[in-house]
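Hi V.,

You were right to ask for the full record rather than a summary. Here it is.
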Amino acid sequence: MNASETKLQPIIEGTKQYVVPLFQRSYSWDKKEWEILWNDLVELSETENPRDHFIGSIVTMPTTSVPEGVAKYLLIDGQQRLSTIFILLTLLRDQLYKSEQKELAEEINNTLLVNPYKKDADHYKLLPTQVDRSSFKKLIDSEPILAEDRVTEAYKYFERKVKQSNFDCKMLQKVISSYLSVVSIVLDPEDNPHLVFESLNAKGRPLTQSDLIRNYFFMRIHIDEQDKVYQDFWRPMQEGLGDDLTEFIRHYLMRSGTKVKQSDVYLSLKELVSQEDALVHLKNLAKFADYYKKLVSPENEVNKDVRKVLERINRLEVTTTYPFLLNCYDDYAQNKISDYEFIAVLKVIENFMIRRFVCNVPTNQLNKIFPPLYNSVDNKETGSFCERLKGVLQFKGYPKDSEFSARLQDSNLYGSGDRARKTKLILETIEEAYNHKEQVPFNELTIEHVMPQTLTEWWQDHLGDDWGIIHDLHLHTLGNLTLTAYNPELSNDDFDNKRTRFSESHLELNKYFSDKLSWEKEDILNRSISLADIVLTVWPYFGDKNYEQNGHANVTGTTPRALWILGQEFSANSWRDVLEHTMNTIAELEPDKFEHLIQQFPRFIGRDKKKFRAIRGLKNGAFIEINLSAQVIQKFCFQAIESIELTADEWQVETIA
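Predicted structure:
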């Protein structure tokens, strides 16, 4: 066996071929793995002096080939990542051809994808299993593929990412060629490849990065001290954090301002510890592990006021804040800031995160905001730590009052994932804002839709001719949501029966309905405005008021001149044009999420044109309803772009009155 660390390019350059054995599974990576690889490549491209990025091991074994054939290797392990790289290189080649960069496209093709002077099967540098071979060959040969499989899905995923980010294909090719590294393990021809594969993929639990870190520390601590050091420092960390230990060490390393990827925790710690005393670092690590334990499990915090705010922070699931909060916790533990000041800092973070959640500000920038945040705040000269923190965060995608108020009224707050949990926190906080001396416990309460998720005939008659559009646009907005312990009993009941049940509630939120005779569009909008006013006082704007911006203006009576999506301009002469361009773009960038939109907004978009009053056809064969007002189209487009995680900055309409 011969093992060596090398760049990826030498592995696939030259006249050779990698054959995936039959006992291997077919290509099975999906969006989760593609996204990790893509994000790593983007980060490397944006780093000024990137270091090599390790993507794993590739285990091969020479196999017999005929004299005139290419040198063949069985690909025992690593076929998933290597196949994905080949698919991505094929896409880059195709994109470069389209952009008239023929020379680089041919270089990729002839040096990295194929053996240009070989024929038949020997022409291809990679031969997947028979299940994937046909699609893979068609990709390499630039032939149309009729059947959909995982190989073609991967190609289309990366194609959308390149279009969506307007990425420089030449730079991406350079990153793949120059900065991706692997451990290449070449077996002896006498080895049994099947047994090797089974041993590499055994069910035994692999070493974690925290295991490697533990070994690294104790190799540098005198043998006479190891047992005591282990009992005093490492064991409490390991037992207290369990599977979270590696993630804690990553956040600990990031608290100095640097970003550390999950795959680089061990290497980053080695770089830090190798220059100083290992025991000093281990003691400091153990100290911060105690803070981390309180962050992830607030019941360990003895101060009940601090504990309460930490519990709220945890409900927002903002682990990206931990590098910053670890430093703040240290200041609190060392009495550099009081418990009152620490609580104030936590409330600022809660305010920041709540406003961003409601306004659908993408979370992908948070891991760039929080690691250097402590140093940025510490370096400011005037004001308390909390005031300096506000001064920094107001320029980090912090929504102003007008935007916050507008989105509280029209955003879909209820939904899958963590949206419902965050929205329940908002509703609970509104209830607490009424300052009742006897607060109702919230544990047994759930979110109730006043206008129900499934409309009965009574509700359709009550809402009027536009019941479908009203339901699609206002179902999950703040004005239609409340808290109750009687969710199953209320279900799809008519409003009169719901109002009776609400009148018996001890919640101030539900007393609102006691004098309401109807629950139609205007009623929902009025309650949204009323609740938004309360929310603005609970999480008040902490930035400079001079930076206040306009929210979503009323567009009734306006005519669009142009639409911009991700920097691309579209000509638009009407709001119907805006709707059409928006839907076509979503269908192209995120086809899976487009299909979800069809399910979520059946009165706006679908594939059966008979269901609509007036239609326009989209490029993918679907249809959109266009018999809509400008205000309704704007609100629907906001919710649609929100579903693919675009922001107001990335979707803008220029209008004339």
